[in-house]
Amino acid sequence: MRHFISIADLDRSQAIEVLATAEHMAETQSRSIRKLPTLLGSTVVNLFFEDSTRTRISFEAAAKRLSADVINFSAKGSSLSKGESLKDTALTLQAMGADAVVVRSASSGAAHQLAHAGWIDQPIINAGDGAHEHPTQAMLDAFTLRRHLRSGDHHGGLDGLHVVIVGDVLHSRVARSNVLLLTLLGARVTLVAPPALVPVGARAWPCEVIYDLDEALAAGPDAVMMLRVQRERMVGGGFFPTEGEYARRYGLSTQRAARLPGHTIVMHPGPMNRGFEIAGDVADSERSVIVEQVASGVFVRMSVLYHLLATDVREDAR
Length: 318
Known about the structure:
Elements: H1 12-28, E1 43-48, H2 54-65, E2 69-74, H3 86-95, E3 100-105, H4 110-116, E4 124-129, H5 135-149, E5 162-166, H6 173-184, E6 188-192, E7 208-210, H7 213-218, E8 223-226, H8 243-250, H9 254-258, E9 265-267, H10 280-283, H11 290-309
Parallel strand pairs: 1-2, 1-3, 3-4, 5-6, 5-8, 6-7, 8-9
Helix pairs in contact: 1-5, 1-11, 2-11, 5-6, 5-11
């Protein structure tokens, strides 16, 4: 891999290889010294045009556990806020000796532009671009699914599993990346959302689209992934009548969760709106793997950095 921009850039074998390496990274964390010297001397820049806590800290932790130096670069208060172009910022990062750049932006395609415009030679990792994609989030979700529903098999995909993704699909880069990755790995995906929160063209995606959550849950899925309702992107409103109506029809309530098969796991990319898209006791229940997803993110991002930067590996993480 040269860059990590979109799940669409991966084939099945590459996706499984990233997941398998993440499994090895997870195993190293049981050691007394959890750091690996793999990227000693490398510098990873987190270039975040959007606020993020989980994703930025996760990438920072991943890079540091591989012994890389990390520079966190926020657009707020930087030259970007004074009108500097993305091109000039890229040239500055390259001049400073960045070995990889992790970019998060509200603009769809920003990571792709940074990777392919010829401004910078270093690997680019997409940490979320607009409503387009969030590929490492999809990878950590797949990693978590394999650990729970494919226990002991860390060399295959997710063939035969059924995953239901619920909520604000229209504004969700997480949903798009997950549909691409989960189906690539052999899972069946069902999207559930109010009609106004289903993207135009979603029926051409490799998944089923329905509007009734109870119907989707009655099929007995292996995993239910709730999405955050992104109010900040809902300019003009009108996407659903009221919050109460949304919660009644599309929220994962205690009653709905109780009807799920015993093995079904509950997921959420965070941050959660408790009591709105998911009941608090469901988020904290034994079937919830939401906290584990955060830990999975570190291992997956270690794997991605390893595959992009570890050309001279000083320790075999496998």
